[in-house]
Amino acid sequence: MRNNIPLREANTLGGVYRGPSRQDGGGSILKMFARRPLAAVFLFLGGIAHAEEIGDAERGEKIFRECAGCHEVGQGAKNRIGPQLNGIFGRKAASVGDDFFYSKGLQRAANDGLLWDLEHLDAYLENPKALVSGTRMSFRGLKDPQDRHDVLAYLRRFSDNPANIPEAEPTQLPAEVELPPEILAIVGDPEYGEYLASECQTCHQRDGSDQGIPAITRWPVEDFEIAMHAYKKKIRPHPVMQMMAGRLTDEEIATLAAYFKDLE
Ligand code: HEC
Ligand code: HEC
After folding, report:
1. How many CA atoms lie within 13 A of 101 on its CB side?
2. The dihedral of CA 114, 116, 170, 36: what is its sign?
3. How far, in Å, from the CA of 124 to the mean position of ligand 1?
4. 55 alpha carbon to ligand 2 midpoint, in Å?
5. 20, 71, 107, 150: which could join 59 in a potential S-S bond, CB 3.0 to 4.6 Å?
6. Which one, of 176, 161, 80, 187, lies nearest residue 120 by Cα?
7. Would you say 108 and 92 are in contact if contact means Cβ atoms under 8 Å apart?
8. Ligand 1 neighbourhood includes 153 CB (under 6 angstroms)
9. Could you give the CA distance from residue 48 to residue 50 in angstroms, rounded to a whole number?
10. Closest ligand, as measured to the CA of 83
11. Cβ(55)–Cβ(146) under 8 Å?
C-alpha cells in the first residue's frame, strides 16, 4: 500500500517543487517512475558480468566470531539473539520464520522489498542503522570493507544455490553511504528549508507523530543525512523515498536535515 501514491497526488507533489534553483518542473516525478525498471536491469546484469570471489572465506570464518555471540550458521543452526544465517544470500529480509521476533524497522524494509543480496548485506554490515533505521541488531558495524567481504565470503558457503547468485568483485561494490566531511559540513538556510519541507510534510507529520509514515523531526543531522543519501543511492529500498531523495542536491538534503532537526 505504502508504495502507491495516486497519480494525481504525484503530480501535485512534483508541482510544489518548482523552486528557483531547479530546472526540472512538475512532470519529472512520472518520468522517474518510468525510468526505474531499466536501471534495475542494468544493476543486475552488472552483477553477473563480474562473477568473482567476494573475499577470503577462511579469514571470514574468524571475523564471524564477532557475529557468533548472536548468530548461528551451518547445519542445525538455530535462531538466537539474531536469526540463523543459512541461505542468507538471496533471502528476503526478516523472513526466517515465526519463531524469530524482528524489529518493526526490518519488517518495514522487508515490506519495501529488501532482499539480502551482496550490495545490501555489505551496507547492513557496515552500518546496520544506516540501512534499516530502528533495527534491533545492535552491532557497531564492520568499517573495513575487506572484513565485510571476507565475512560475506564465509556466509556465502551456507547459501543454497551459489551458482545463481550474482557476485561482484570487491573493488566493484557500489559506493556505500559514507558521507565525506564536506557534505556533513554544509549548513542549510532555514527559509529555503521551510520551502523544501512543505513537500515532505504532505506525508510526514509536522508535529512529529507517526501515522503509518515515520516521524522525521528532531533527528540528529547526520542520521537524517545518512538516511536520505541511502535512499538517493537506492541502498534503502523504498521507491517513493528513493525518488524524493534522488531529486535533492547534497545542499538541499543538508538544509532539510537542519530544518527538521529544529522543528518544534
Ligand atoms: C549483538 C547481537 C548481534 C551481533 C553481534 C550481530 N548481529 Fe546480526 N542481527 C542481530 C539481530 C537482533 C538481528 C535482527 C534485526 C532486526 O530485527 O532488526 C540481526 C539481523 C541480521 C541479519 C538480517 C537477517 C534477516 O533474517 O533478515 C543479517 C544478515 C545479520 N544480522 C548478519 C550479521 C553479521 C554477519 C554479523 C557479524 C559481522 C552480525 N549480524 C552481528 C543481532 C546481532
Ligand atoms: C509520498 C509520501 C512521502 C513524501 C512526499 C516524503 N516521504 Fe519520506 N518517507 C515516506 C515513507 C512511506 C517512508 C518510510 C519508507 C521506508 O519504509 O523506508 C519515508 C521515510 C523517510 C525517512 C526515513 C525515516 C526512518 O524512520 O528511517 C526520512 C529521513 C524521510 N522520509 C525524509 C523525507 C523528506 C526530507 C522528504 C521531503 C523531501 C520526504 N521524506 C518526503 C513517505 C514520504
Report:
1. 2
2. negative
3. 9
4. 35
5. 150
6. 176
7. no
8. no
9. 5
10. 1
11. yes
Of residues 41 and 157, which shows the higher confidence score?
Answer: 157
> In a mutational test of the pocket of ligand 1, which residue from 61, 70, 78, 133 has the highest number of ligand atoms less than 8 Å from its CB?
70
Count how many residues are written for the chain: 264
What rounded mean pLDDT belongs to the chain? 75
Q: Which amino acid is at 35?
A: R
Q: Is 189 exposed, middle or buried (0-12, 13-18, 19+ CB in 10 A)?
A: middle
Backbone phi and psi for residue 93, each to the nearest 5 degrees, phi listed first? -60, 150
Q: What is the pLDDT of residues 207-216, one digit of tens each?
A: 767 767 888 8
Q: Which CATH number fits domain 57-172: 3.90.70.10, 1.10.10.10, 1.10.760.10, 1.20.120.330?
A: 1.10.760.10
Judge whether 57 and 155 are in contact, CB under 8 Å.
no
For residue 13, the SS3 value is helix
73 lines ligand 1 (CB under 6 A): no
User: Can you give the pTM of this predicted structure?
Assistant: 0.60
- For the domain spanning 7-42+178-261, the CATH number is 1.10.760.10
